[in-house]
């Protein structure tokens, strides 16, 4: 089974991005029976999608999992829904800051992840690490890439699945401990558990992962 | 201009629901030129939509704003997107707990609010109260009602707009101050500002209200 | 019964300080039988204590309650202990930033509040507002004034009691609602409840207000 | 140089206590030149101090660092002050719940840590892990042990230093990621850095570690 994992370059003044560090660590120790390829995406609207689509096609991956940083969250969060909206709170790495623009003109308002999100959460917890389902990937590059991925997969690529995973800060990004963090090797272990769940689960678990608001 | 405001009954063990308290206070002092009607919705899947659709039709409202409690948030949050998903973390007031079911079979994955969400945020802040845009209304009753509202309005009711606003706990709901709160009269003032912005804004403000994740 | 309430001037770039706004509102409507005087303290190490001691002597107050802003807390917090330490994270309003200096050379490491802290918490909750006991007033001006007050009262002023109360941000200080807040009139109501409890309680309630860490 | 590290047994319904797990890991790899002994303390008022004092005497430790869990904190926190107060929010492991009782009758209101707290914070950050100074250890077992330790050391044991360190939850204690956590091996690395700083620092760093409230 071929799986593509993507991470992002640093942004917003940070020198590192936990998503790429963890993706690289995960790549070094793939689950049995999984052929893992990786791609580094720029934190640039549109360019990120060009790079992503190329990687999806080059890899021939049957499962694509994009990974991004969610500074402030304490656990792995498996995103459930991507929305057709760019509303950038800060400029991207090329200085562009779209506000209230669709990602795909005439695209649907949203796509749901086609990963087994509940099984992915359970797999991370079974590995002793914290995880939950999230119902918003924001309106910046992470959601942009998530929506672009799902639009690409849903447009004539039947049977290929994809989704997005948000990860916490690395410990060195929060030296005074005012925000939660997770070591890169823990994030990598969690990603590996997610990849395993994604390739082995045919029907997702039927247990609540909902939020009241 | 006719406006409908809805609130919810209490749920989850609470004796009160700030949404209904504030809606009632707002009803007592509507903005000039606005004819305000209100409806109390049950915290029951499906039943809440039956009641909502009836209130929409009875009121003839051109603008419908549903209001619900988001315990833990510190300001007013104007919801931007409703998703076609029920995933109840706790049972509703009739004991029903849907998990991973669509709200409308074959409905679109999501609807965007047709309120001017940025203008609504600005109006609340101009009134000296905290507000922001939110990109998830959860997967419980609030999202259920929000999605059901948008589906109803988008199905053959052109020119009628709607959306959802989440409000904080009341002070008496958090006696030890471990979560944020807002007095009912402050919430009502904020709702009044939102109603005014909704009926007077023809084109929404073009300024960021986005989130990074 | 004579009571002195003190508040602080703005600091740290803020245009307002909720402590002084609320103290002024509380002064306008004192509890029955209470003669209330107030003093505005500068956010300046040492100078604040000079002004405080003068106000204590001028007022002849039997109960002194100093009030300060604790940005980020969601309820009223009744401070229990003042420590003999200045460690300023930011400079004061005169640009002075003491690090690891005692407030009173050869003073004891700490003083406990002589207010009935549990009764004060209960009084605020009875008024429908959130409150709890806090076990640190920080190491900036609030703790400085709290320690200086207790040292003054404990040095030959038997029967005169004092303490410190921290209050949340005002709503206008957190326009995007990323931190909790409380309207000035709510804070004032809570202060009035605290004053009443302080002057009428002879023996504090014996119920836990502790924290695990 | 002889150093004693103590941890606690589980409490409050948890099956594990990160303090003891990390102390055991740290013991297995002490810094050069340090003879490290450890002790497991019961989460029982008074009994914990009996066990602690015995371990201090048996070990002949010149530096004693007690470690406890602070569920909800995201980094290592080096406690600066212990107060003479038991106010238990929950019963201890023997079912005893003291409220508003002194730890040592006629003891001083507080003791300051005699560890170089700023150097300890810097050492943890240098190891790539989050840390800060804390000004309250609560009013439960951690503060009880911290105060009892300092009282013991200050009563006729010149030159022997001690203090308290709070550590976050383990990842497996927060499966849904609603609170921060840190892996046991990261906590152990941080403790080792603290031990090294404690035994090699003769004069603490003069840089702010203060908090505004």
UniProtKB/TrEMBL annotation, chains A, B, C, D:
Top EC class of this enzyme: hydrolase
Catalyzed reaction equations: Release of an N-terminal pyroglutamyl group from a polypeptide, the second amino acid generally not being Pro
Top-level division of the source organism's lineage: Bacteria
InterPro entries, per the entry: Peptidase_C15, Peptidase_C15-like, Peptidase_C15-like_sf, PGP-I_bact-type, PGPEP1_Cys_AS
Keyword match Amino-acid biosynthesis: no
A single BP term in Gene Ontology: proteolysis
EC number(s) from the headed UniProt entry: 3.4.19.3
Gene Ontology CC terms, in alphabetical order: cytosol
Chief site of localization: cytoplasm
Keyword tags: Cytoplasm, Hydrolase, Protease, Thiol protease
Localisation per UniProt entry: Cytoplasm
Positions in coiled-coil regions: none
GO function terms (MF aspect): pyroglutamyl-peptidase activity
Primary role: Removes 5-oxoproline from various penultimate amino acid residues except L-proline.
HAMAP family: Pyrrolid_peptidase
Family, as annotated: Belongs to the peptidase C15 family.
Classification via PANTHER family: PROTEASE FAMILY C15 PYROGLUTAMYL-PEPTIDASE I-RELATED, PYROGLUTAMYL-PEPTIDASE I
Quaternary context: Homotetramer.
The protein's name in its UniProt record: Pyrrolidone-carboxylate peptidase
Gene: pcp
